[in-house]
Design brief:
The protein is mainly α. It has one domain: Rhomboid-like fold. Helix content is 61%, strand content 2%. It contains seven helices and two strands; from the N terminus they run ααααββααα. A two-stranded antiparallel sheet has the order 1-2. β1 and β2 form a beta hairpin. It is globular, with a radius of gyration of 16 Å. The relative contact order is 0.18.
Length: 168
C-alpha cells in the first residue's frame, strides 16, 4: 500500500482506475487491487494502522486459518461492493478504493470467531477487538459522500460468513 502510494506521488499518477467500478466489467480488476489503493496519504494512514493490528491478530493463531480467511474477505467484500456499490455519485463515476472493506471484514471475523471457537485466547481477542474497533460498525450504515459504506457493509458480511464457515 505504501509502495503504491509512493509511486503515485513520485510519478504524479493515480492508480484509482484499478479500483472497483460497480457493475462494470472493467471494475472487476478492483476485486484484486482496490484494498491496495488509497485516495491520499491521510486515507492510507487511516487504514494502515488498524489493518496492521488486525492482520497481526489474524496471523497470530493458525486456528483462524489466516490465509484462507484473508483471501475470502478480500475477494468477497470486493465482489459485494461491485454488486451493490454506488456506480454514480453526483453524475460522476464512482470508484471504490481502500482497505477499509478488509478492515471491516477482519473486525467482524475476529469478533464472531471469538464466540464460535473453543478458545479463551479467541474470546480475549474478540473482546479486545470489540473495545478497540467496535465503534466502526456505524460505518456500514448508508451515508452520502466519498466513503464507501457499501464496501464496509460487504466486508462485515464477508467477515461474518467466513467466521461461520471456519468455526461452525
Amino acid at each position: 500500500m505504501f509502495f503504491i502510494k509512493a509511486v503515485e506521488l513520485s510519478a504524479d499518477v493515480s492508480f484509482a482506475g484499478f479500483g472497483i467500478v460497480p457493475r462494470d466489467e472493467r471494475g472487476l480488476i478492483g476485486l484484486l487491487f482496490s484494498p491496495l489503493l488509497h485516495g491520499n496519504a491521510a486515507h492510507l494512514l487511516a487504514n494502515a494502522a488498524p489493518l496492521f493490528v488486525l492482520l497481526t491478530l489474524l496471523f497470530w493463531d493458525r486456528k483462524y486459518h489466516p490465509w484462507r480467511t484473508l483471501a475470502f474477505i478480500w475477494l468477497a467484500s470486493g465482489l459485494g461492493t461491485w454488486l451493490i456499490g454506488r456506480g454514480m455519485t453526483n453524475g460522476q463515476l464512482t470508484v471504490h478504493i481502500g482497505a477499509s472493506s478488509v478492515i471491516y471484514g477482519l473486525v467482524v471475523y475476529l469478533l464472531v470467531a471469538g464466540f464460535l471457537m473453543d478458545s479463551w485466547r479467541a474470546v480475549f481477542v474478540a473482546v479486545g477487538v470489540g473495545i478497540a474497533y467496535g465503534g466502526i460498525i456505524y460505518g456500514v450504515l448508508p451515508q452520502s459522500g466519498p466513503i464507501s459504506w457499501e464496501g464496509h457493509l460487504c466486508g462485515a458480511i464477508a467477515g461474518f460468513f467466513t467466521a461461520r464457515h471456519n468455526h461452525a
